Amino acid sequence: MGDNKFRIAIIGGGLAGATLANALFRIPYLDAHVYESSATFSERGAAVGLSANAQQALEMIIVPSSKELLERAGAVPMNSSRAVLGSGPEAGTIIIDLAGHGDPGVVVHRAALLRELLAPLPPDLLHANKKLNSLVQEEDGLYQVRFEDGTVERFDAVIGADGIFGSVRSFVLGDAAAAAAAEHGPSPAGFWDCRVLVPFDKAKATLGEQYFDVHRQYGWVGDGAFIMHDILDAGTTVQCVVSAVEKDAPRDRKRPLTLESLTKSLRTWLDGPIAKGVIDVSFSLVLDQADPQGYSQWEHKSTPTYANGRVCIIGDAAHATSPWQGAGAGQAFEDALILGFLLGNDHVKRRADIEAAFKAFDVVRRPRCQQVIDSSRGTGAIMCGQNPDVGLDPARVRAAFAGRWSFIFSLDLDEYRQDALKKMREFLGQ
Ligand SMILES: Cc1cc2nc3c(=O)[nH]c(=O)nc-3n(C[C@H](O)[C@H](O)[C@H](O)COP(=O)(O)OP(=O)(O)OC[C@H]3O[C@@H](n4cnc5c(N)ncnc54)[C@H](O)[C@@H]3O)c2cc1C
């Protein structure tokens, strides 16, 4: 324990790693560093929606408050998130308005959110250009991390926040992963999507003023596909997303998009009086970018454990999910909240306490995150008209949506932290 502090490596500086670093860096007996493989800490991609639980977890982590952080990142409240039927005889029927269901969500540009999450962290804790190459436990119990640049460091504990294709996961799963690589590795969720950001005025002019009277997220639910548009960057940008069912997942996880391929994916939508306009505009927005691609959505269908000794995994490294319930980042924030609580508050005096904390983390987090993954895939099926019991009948879609988000929003995070602590104490025989 260097300088009488426990040294912790956080591998990966995405939303999960950066949020965890916020939860750990003020704990006086920890020396937690973030190692990011890229040359800069950066987020690609468009917006991320943060629902009530995600914001609450962040608020419990960020000192003094996450409200200003989200404001600086340009987060925009989702006054409502509205799902409308996009194809079939009932095209245009409003199915649900999530504003009426108790989720005061916000939408924020990913890069801006990451920038603001990194801002409070002491720069000497952040290490870019540090790609983890190997992880081994030494005889004295320390973990040796070898980076691609040839440097080697030793840690009391390692936390993998290295994303869906990260390598800390294989260390944590050990033999179980090797024995069941297909079962526990990342796999296609059955959908692809393409996201594009356009200036607000352009989107308003092309999609139509009627969609921008309030900051509202629109989701068009239809046969084999789903179209969404929402507002971000403090109201200056609009994100447009086209998603569709994926039958054969390409090996490189992406496919070039053309007018022909988009038209094929949404062929049954084209007769609808309302959806036709949305489709035409969405196509033109999506195709009006260099090299438009549809990216396969991947997920973890099962994970036997999130912890192995004093190594654990968080965020997408542990529980990557399809994006249908907008919950992945929120789950990463909950991970950071629980780990920050278990490792802080004078709960850790010996290395064995860290191991117990990681085991407790696994016990409380894994069932919840797996539920999110499974529910999200099922939600995608409903949104793309693929659930045979629901189809595109407005009343059935409405009924199928009802309550799908409440298990995500309604968790009492204070109680949840206490449950995790109780588990940690049980593992320590206390
Ligand atoms: C299309 C899409 C839409 C989404 N929409 C939402 C939404 O609306 N709401 C929501 O809550 N969630 C959403 N999510 C999920 C959310 O974006 C993710 O759950 C979240 O960004 C995961 O963050 P992460 O830090 O775990 O992983 P990542 O963002 O993948 O970060 C991992 C980091 O680790 C680094 N790394 C990888 N390997 C190494 C290595 N060997 N050494 C060092 N560093 C390494 C990478 O460079 C990267 O910076 C969406 C996801 C997708 C794909």
From TrEMBL:
Record keywords: FAD, Flavoprotein, Oxidoreductase
Source superkingdom: Eukaryota
A Pfam short name: FAD_binding_3
Domain FAD-binding: 290-375
GO biological process, any: secondary metabolite biosynthetic process
Residues in the signal sequence: none
Coiled-coil annotated residue ranges, if any: none
InterPro entries the UniProt entry points to: FAD-bd (IPR002938), FAD/NAD-bd_sf (IPR036188), FAD_monoxygenase (IPR051104)
Molecular function per GO: FAD binding; oxidoreductase activity
Family in the record: Belongs to the paxM FAD-dependent monooxygenase family.
Name of the protein described by the UniProt record: FAD-binding domain-containing protein
